[in-house]
Amino acid sequence: MDAGTSGRRTTHDTPGIRLKKDIFDLLDAPGQIGVNLTSSYAIIPTTSLCGMLIVHPEARYFSISKIGKDQLKDYCAKRGIDETEGKRLLGNLISENGK
Predict the structure, then answer these.
(1) Could you report the per-residue pLDDT of 11-23, keeping only the tens digit for each?
(2) Structure pTM?
């Protein structure tokens, strides 16, 4: 980040961040820099990191609410994955009562 750039550096654990595999595949991370993902999306070597940097003077932190079963189904359809994988990826973001 350029020292003259203003903005907020945020990190979060959201479904977007859990798209690491897609990003790693798109960028050919293993071939380009020798970084791989485990089946639980941890980065190997462990001294590596993956992040999203949003630099904008109006950037702000935000929270994500729990999602219902209908949103889970929609997410899975858009990603082309089954609900079991969707539940594994979204974990604690899914409402326990399904609403």
Answers:
(1) 445 555 567 888 8
(2) 0.54
